[in-house]
Structure formats: C-alpha cells, structure tokens
Amino acid sequence: MLIRTFREKWLNLARENGLLRFAVGALCVTVALQGCHMKKLSERTTVHVHVPEYMQKDFTIAAAGKASLTYTEQWALSLLPFIASFTAETVDFNVRQFLLYVHPKSYHPISGFLLEKSKEIKASGVAQAFFPKTVAVEEEGAIVVVSGQRTRVVGNVVTDQREVSYRIRFELGANNRPLVTGLTEDEGAQNTDEP
C-alpha cells in the first residue's frame, strides 16, 4: 500500500515537473522574442513633428524628416495673427508669443523690428486686423508669402486699409522644429474703398 501510494505520487510529480519545464521553456522563448522585438524598435528612427496650433490642412512628413510644403504654409498661417492682428493692449503679448518661434541667430533683428512696431501701435492706440487672401510657398518650403488686406482702426473709425504681404522665412531647428529666420512686411497701395 505504501509503495503504491509512493508510486502514484511519483508519477504525479513527474507530470507536474514536465508541465513546469514546458511553462518555463515557453516563458524563456517569449522573453527572447520580446527582446528581439524591442531591439528592432530601438533601431527605428524617431522624427519629432511640431504641429502648428491652428491646423487646417493635412501635411506629410517623409522618412528622412522632410515635410511637405503645406507644413510650412500652416506654420506661417498659425504664427501670422501674432504679428498682423492685434490691439494696443495685446500687441506686447502677441510679440512675445511670436518671438518664441524665432531662431536664435535671427532673434535680435526680428525682435527689434517687432518692438519698434509695438511702440508705434501703443503710442497711436491703433487696432489692426489682417485678412489673408493668398498664400505662396517658395524655395522648397523655406519661405511663405501671405498676402491680404490689413485694416487699421482707431476707436470705431477705419484709418487705413491696404494690401500687405508678409514674407516669413523658416529654418528647421532642434528636433525639426520650424523657426522663423526672416520676416518682412511689404505694404501696398492704400484702398480708397471705405466699408
């Protein structure tokens, strides 16, 4: 009786040991496969994409990190309200926000231009609104030209309406973040049509 019980326990123990070996073997194979998968993931290239705040069009990014022309166009349209539409009270905030996107090597000339414009706006109490009409992307996406109508108002009186073009030059900074390296404002002829 004791031998029979011992033999049954021994057979059950052998089955349990076989199942345990199988489970441990399966776990080892799973860990090895997981390691191979993690190694493949670590070899992939990571591209950081900074998306403008007000996206209106889809864009594509190539495997090498080169963005489509729509990408810089959307950046220009997203940054333009900071420098083209403001009031005497909001002009300082708008200039500070725009300067966050300026390349360090171009910071001094652009900030000088915008701060001079800011002083002029605050001294006269002018509010300005810009309504874009056309957008052109030049030099493989490095320059975006946005043309439209600029309206300046003092109180409730429209003091100036004219066609204006803003030319914004971009350069990719750290982590492929587009930064402004050039900014020009070209004023056209004054419109005589009063709204």
Descriptive report:
This protein has 195 residues and is of the alpha+beta class. The protein has 2 domains: 44 residues; 122 residues, VirB8 protein (Nuclear Transport Factor 2, Chain: A, Roll), CATH 3.10.450.230. It has 4 helices and 4 strands. It has a 4-stranded antiparallel sheet with strand order 1-2-3-4. Helix 2 runs antiparallel to helix 3. The N and C termini lie far apart (111 Å). The model has no long low-confidence stretch (mean pLDDT 83).
Mean pLDDT: 83
What is the N-to-C order of secondary-structure elements (H for helix, E for strand)? HHHHEEEE
Total strands: 4
Major sheet description: 4 strands, antiparallel
Q: What's the CATH superfamily of the largest domain, by name?
A: VirB8 protein
Number of domains: 2
CATH architecture of the largest domain: Roll
**Integer-rounded radius of gyration:** 32 Å
Shape: rod-shaped
Residue fraction in strands? 25-35%
Number of H- or I-type helical stretches: 4
